[in-house]
Amino acid sequence: MVAEHEKLASDVDSRQAFATSVHAVLAEFFETQQATVGSVGPVFADAVEVLKSFVLNGGKRVRPSFTWAGWLGAGGSPDSDRATAVLTVAAAQEFIQASALIHDDVMDESSTRRGAPSVHVQFANRHRRGKWEGDSRKYGEAIAILLGDLGLCWADDMLRSAYLRMDEHKRVAPVWSAMRTEVIGGQVLDIATVAERDESEAAALRIDRYKTAAYTVERPLHLGAELAGAGPDLIRAYRQFGVDIGIAFQLRDDLLGVFGDPAVTGKPIGDDLREGKRTVLLALALQRANPKESALLRRCIGTAMSDNDLARVYEVLRTTGVVEDLERRIERLTDRAIVALETSEATPTAQRLLRGMALSATRREA
Amino acid sequence: MVAEHEKLASDVDSRQAFATSVHAVLAEFFETQQATVGSVGPVFADAVEVLKSFVLNGGKRVRPSFTWAGWLGAGGSPDSDRATAVLTVAAAQEFIQASALIHDDVMDESSTRRGAPSVHVQFANRHRRGKWEGDSRKYGEAIAILLGDLGLCWADDMLRSAYLRMDEHKRVAPVWSAMRTEVIGGQVLDIATVAERDESEAAALRIDRYKTAAYTVERPLHLGAELAGAGPDLIRAYRQFGVDIGIAFQLRDDLLGVFGDPAVTGKPIGDDLREGKRTVLLALALQRANPKESALLRRCIGTAMSDNDLARVYEVLRTTGVVEDLERRIERLTDRAIVALETSEATPTAQRLLRGMALSATRREA
């Protein structure tokens, strides 16, 4: 199954086959935890089932894909005896992602995730239905915090279960560590930037750099490269590609969060504006708006503004020209990333694969 | 410095020297994180400082001590070239503990920890003082959740930084994994047991087993044994000792939480009763109380009861004889633990050390 990826490279079947492989190693990891979980007791086992469906059913496996592509591109072979270890390390990132989403939803008080009630809401609902003791919301948040903690622990347990050789381990460990510290740091910045009303473009870019680019593209690719024992030139090229595509991905996300078609994105219109997300888009708009316009933005952004105000905010975003500017930036970043990739030593198949991933990350509509 | 522990064994100087060594390796670990933390930015670095003081200034280093003692007892030598690796693994548990306390305080809405404002309160206070955007409480909780997450990640990063040999790694990994899953599982049980109003002794004992005994004594000792390559007999003896002393420790804690001298424990009188902790003490009292008494307990426990009601609750606890029963259980568990220890292959010095630790854990007054 694993062996097909290199051949089929960027087509849909291959992506499906890879997702199936990731699902399989994740499911297998859950099996290995059964005994310990069961010994703690059925109440815990029930809670773990929620984490299990979250991890097994969720997401596009973006980070595992970049690690796998990075490994292939640095000469890793799906037929080698290292393929299973690489797949395991790649898939382990899904536990970090699950934990990040579960904790994010608690922090943001988001009630839905992937079209279903978020984890803390699921447990709050159980509490409410059972007419249990205490506050349902607090109960849901507590269990969600603990399941997110478990996800973080299991990411590392799964990494360890790959039993990397000492040389692989020494190369991988610093990258794995940096990735986790960076994404948590980026999230701290995000929360602090909103709280401290930092409207600067620099602050927004820094969040994009650590919360998104490093965590979603740069480090996953870097992990793949280290697993393959890549040299410094390829690693540099991958990281450049990763930072650029990661930021371009986030800028696209910002545009979709404001101008995306609700029917395609699944988010209500103006969601990011009402939430008050500190995006590069907003920072640029505030830089360019005239005093009256920026007063309007400051009064409305981050509030449950009326549809009338929302329409006026859209008008300001359009007249300041930030949309065209962001589109140009996305294009420049993507171009630079692809040049870094195409002038690198990455194998041709992996170049094709990564180019396809770059374009679908930056040109998507949802 | 490390070499002194074996010689000085159980006296106060040695404990102080060990605490100093643990502090040193923890401080050194923080140094290694500076570069990554700094690159994310000063706002993140500021937040990490709070985690740093929490970890460096806190606690009695109980878990590292048991790991160290377990390793010594299984033939580990402070003069060997493995001593630093063992100290690193031992100390890494302090990050798990920091994370557990920080997240516990969020879940329980506890405003103080170790006589200072808890981490989420510290950040809520900053938010309030800065007159920042949004809700101060939510801000404090979000940063505390993230710092707890960082603590969990850094526990594993620090473990990795020990660069265990493959044989050590293979023995240690399952124990480290089980410990973290067990403590999170125990915490889930604790929260669910209160919510579902499970008053059984079995539920309370199960929480003590996983949330306290496994995490505080059994697994830390087990880690030390595996690091030394101990055989199955010694591991079995350590685990028996660990479970028994861990539960006895918790039963002592339950007694102190209800009958402890507030001047010595630092907790207000009747704190555990008003909080509604599901302890073995309470489970036994409910089993033995007559219908009128158990109605009183059910009406009052877990509420901000009046001092008058509190006095009546105390009266019930005294007349049911649960205090004497718990004292007997603590004694029986401690005796059994010490027999397991003394009939084991553990070195005489380590036996003396562990006996001392067992007695101070189960006979303490605070």
UniProtKB/TrEMBL annotation, chains A, B:
Keywords: Coiled coil, Magnesium, Metal-binding, Transferase
Obligatory cofactor(s): Mg(2+)
UniProt-recorded Gene Ontology molecular function terms: metal ion binding; prenyltransferase activity
Source lineage: Bacteria, Bacillati, Actinomycetota, Actinomycetes, Mycobacteriales
InterPro entries: Isoprenoid_synthase_dom_sf, Polyprenyl_synt, Polyprenyl_synt_CS
Residues forming coiled coils: 316-343
Pfam families per record: polyprenyl_synt (PF00348)
SUPFAM superfamilies for the chain: Terpenoid synthases
Pathway(s) per entry: Isoprenoid biosynthesis
Record flagged with keyword Coiled coil: yes
Family in the record: Belongs to the FPP/GGPP synthase family.
BP GO terms, sorted: isoprenoid biosynthetic process
PROSITE patterns xrefs: POLYPRENYL_SYNTHASE_1 (PS00723), POLYPRENYL_SYNTHASE_2 (PS00444)
Species this chain originates from: Antrihabitans stalagmiti
PANTHER family: GERANYLGERANYL PYROPHOSPHATE SYNTHASE (PTHR12001), SHORT CHAIN ISOPRENYL DIPHOSPHATE SYNTHASE (PTHR12001:SF85)
Protein name (database record): Polyprenyl synthetase family protein
Domain of life: Bacteria
